[in-house]
Amino acid sequence: MAFLWEVNGMPTPEIVNRPLISITNVIWSFDPVTHQLLVLLLQRDSAPFEATWGLPTTYLRPDESADAAALRLVREKLGVTLSSFHTEQLATFTNPKRGLGERELALTYMVYLPVKPDLVAGYGAKAVQWFAVTPAGDHDDLVAADLHFQVLPDKVSEPTYYENQARFVTPKGLTADHTLILRTALQRVRNRLDYAPTILLVCGHQFTLKQAREIYAILLRKPLQSIDNSNFRKTHGHLFEEIGTAHQSSSGRPAKLYRLKNQS
């Protein structure tokens, strides 16, 4: 709803009154078998974005904070209860062209899921699927079997995107501006790899250096072989705390286990 104010008898531009406030989660996970960094997408089952794929979203309730809503969304969609330690605010998206219908502001969060639960499409969704983050030149693709979406390329500015969104998505498209939200999330975790790699929380309470290198390689769009284990330990070892060794059935030296320093 919008209305006009008058100042000294002169009308001013319309003022938006009570826009919708949505909570949108970028939910990360990691598959130690396929060595893939994953993002959760849902296929909508109702208008105005019926059949399109996008990030899990809910509306803010009158009796909850945005932080609480982000955690509730994880419980409702995945049946997983997390502490706030596994979430962080990403950004707020308010562009008037960001979606169809009533004006909607999106408060976005990143969620680092330390487990990979079975998926069941719930209320509001036709389907739900983990998508592998797949480097592709100046952008990242999201791939799951025969489904393939391109995340917004690095060189495309936010204003340019909102001026002509259709040219930056696949024919089916992602819901609203979720390709931009995903690009923002990838840039955030990529930019923090050298000082605050919270993305490694997707490995759970512990990880090996190889798993860390696998995630770094995906985010940096490099072959795993280009991130040498010894050099990686020298350049990033100060961010980790050694906590033991992995159990293994084969012969050879067991891999050391680490966690992020200051991890609760």
Automatic annotation (TrEMBL):
It comes from Lactiplantibacillus fabifermentans DSM 21115. This is Nudix hydrolase domain-containing protein. It comes from the Bacteria. Pfam families: NUDIX (PF00293), WHD_NrtR (PF21906). InterPro entries: NUDIX_hydrolase-like_dom_sf, NUDIX_hydrolase_dom, WH-like_DNA-bd_sf, WH_DNA-bd_sf, WHD_NrtR. Gene3D superfamilies: Nucleoside Triphosphate Pyrophosphohydrolase (3.90.79.10), Winged helix-like DNA-binding domain superfamily/Winged helix DNA-binding domain (1.10.10.10). Residues 20-155 form the Nudix hydrolase domain.
